[in-house]
Specification:
Length: about 350
């Protein structure tokens, strides 16, 4: 029995030797893999530390500061009237028998306008002819054939060729800004996109007590004869104008901690001679701001490129990527208050 047991143990030991060798090989392989992984991770970390932290690049839109004109104005609305008009009256009361002209027709002085029959029951009289007191264009004929009128009722209205004018009412709070000969820009829905020029020609000496407004009359320059009396007009009265100033969109200005500044585009050369785009913080002094356009009194020169959008997260020296360069402002910008 002892010999048999010894033989069995010897057989078991002989079969366990290959399994031990296999376990040792697996343990050795795992140890080598762990060591290699640790070395690789360490090398990568050294490379990242040597390269430094990644620098963020911000996407921005830019535009150019321009030199030009800025205007402050007041916006109003009014109606176009004939510059000088004369009403035509009859010398006698009676019934309108005939009208000799039409609206828009040119008449000369003493041309017949209308005939009035002053006859009454039992009495027949010769027709009284109302004549044009001046030469001009007939702009209105309120009388109608068969209508009974008196000497105080106008038969027609004639524009004497004194040009056209816009009549508008200015609120009392803007009266201090009104003055004769102020330039005006006039636009009409009838001629979209066209701007007609004019100037303040008359200021009323009184203020309407009920409406608290003052009447202002504006001469209109209409060499194309496109305007007509009775048209509705929108008027911009230029109250202040500055020339040869530096201006930028007001949205480019940032206000932080009591100072106002913009970010100016600059280019920087790296050690490897590569050029990168960065921004420099530039403190500016804004002047008047009109219709989203700011006058810059100091701190910025014409044609300098500034950040217009995307400047919220920027700081001095931040790297940027210019996505779009927005078209600069035009030479003349203006917008003001109005009624």
């Amino acid at each position: 029995m002892k010999k048999k047991n010894l033989a069995q143990r010897a057989q078991r030991g002989a079969t366990s030797l290959p399994q031990r060798a296999q376990r040792l090989f697996i343990m050795f392989f795992c140890t080598m893999f762990i060591v290699f992984s640790v070395i690789t991770i360490g090398c990568n970390r050294n490379k990242e530390e040597a390269a430094g932290p990644e620098v963020p690049v911000f996407a921005v839109n830019t535009t150019l500061a321009v030199q030009g004109q800025i205007q402050d104005h007041l916006a109003f609305a009014g109606d176009i009237h004939a510059g000088s008009t004369v009403d035509v009256f009859s010398d006698a009361a009676g019934r309108v028998a005939e009208i000799h002209t039409a609206v828009g027709r040119r008449v000369n002085r003493n041309d017949p306008i209308a005939s009035v029959d002053p006859s009454r029951p039992g009495m027949t009289f010769r027709h009284s002819v109302a004549r044009a007191p001046i030469s001009g264009t007939v702009i209105a004929i309120p009388a109608q054939v068969g209508q009974t009128i008196s000497q105080a009722v106008p038969l027609a209205r004639i524009s004497g060729g004194g040009g056209l004018e816009v009549r508008l009412n200015v609120a009392e709070r803007f009266i201090s800004k009104m003055a004769l000969n102020l330039p005006c820009e006039i636009t009409l829905d009838a001629w979209p996109g066209e701007i007609f020029q004019g100037s303040v020609s008359e200021l009323s000496p009184t203020v309407d007590l009920a409406a608290r407004t003052m009447e202002v009359r504006i001469n209109v320059s209409d060499t194309s004869s496109k305007l007509r009396a009775g048209m509705f007009a929108k008027v911009k009265i230029i109250t202040e104008q500055k020339d040869n100033i530096v201006k930028i969109p007001a949205s480019a200005i940032i206000s932080r901690f009591g100072e106002q500044f913009v970010y100016v585009i600059a280019h920087e050369k790296q050690d490897d001679d590569a050029m990168i785009t960065i921004v420099n913080k530039r403190v500016v002094t804004p002047g008047i701001i009109i219709d989203g356009v700011a006058e810059i009194l100091s701190g910025l020169s014409p044609n300098e490129e500034i950040v217009l959008r995307g400047q919220t997260l920027l700081d001095e020296g931040s790297r940027v990527n210019i996505i779009e360069q927005v078209t600069p402002l035009s030479g003349t910008i203006g917008q003001g208050a109005g009624q």
